[in-house]
Amino acid sequence: MAELIVALDVQTREEAVAKVKAIGEPVGFYKIGLELFTAEGPDVVKAVKDLGKKVFLDLKFHDIPRTVERAVRSGGKLGVDLMTIHAVGGQAMIRAAADAAAEFGANGPKILAVTVLTSLDQSDLADIGVAGRTPAEQVAALARFATAHGAHGLVCSPREVGALSQALRPGTLFVTPGVRPAGAAVGDQKRVATPADAVRDGATHLVVGRPILAADDPVAAARAIRAEMEGV
Ligand code: C5P
User: Fold this and answer.
1) Taking the model in full, what pTM does it have?
2) pLDDT over 90 (residue 65)
3) Does residue 208 have its Cβ closer than 6 Å to ligand 1?
4) Helix, strand, coil shares, percent, the chain, to 5
């Protein structure tokens, strides 16, 4: 059964706690990203965990293996459930992240690799020295690379998840943002899919922000998305 993760895209710990409490039972998993973590630090992670929720700490580590290993260990100590690294950090960095996560056993953090940021196009890839591959080819190559070296899963767009879930081994996690229920405002997302389509294509976790956080009734919005996911 795919899980719903709400992107806690707010600026303060107080707002974060208020949102988690207001949404309540229908959502058991929250994503804390760079903005909120840089503002509030580990306290906000602890606060969300203390409310009985799982946490996806999306800090996209990319550093030398030893530093990433230690950062993942710090996340494990906080009780974080999912963490992100950049696949382009290389084999040793990916393995170091996976090994640090494994120290926490079956309930420790799972490591997700980011392949090509969706903000990059072909000419951006050429600028950073990736020539001769389309973004889609680069995503597929880095996805195979990262999972072969210990990553438990990938962050990917709902447009990529179908091909990737066919190509990679069963049990790989596919976490997809860019999800919009039919009729919801798209905002600045360009390539979106409905919750049902994303799950049908193989997503194991859907990340949804504004369609829930900015809804008049966030509880009803979360319940509707869950119902759509469970109906697949
Ligand atoms: O509000 P919305 O549903 O668009 O939020 C999606 C969340 O997923 C945001 O936190 C955004 O930063 C994140 N994300 C994304 N697209 C990516 C990677 C992450 O929308 N390619």
Assistant:
1) 0.97
2) yes
3) yes
4) 45, 20, 35
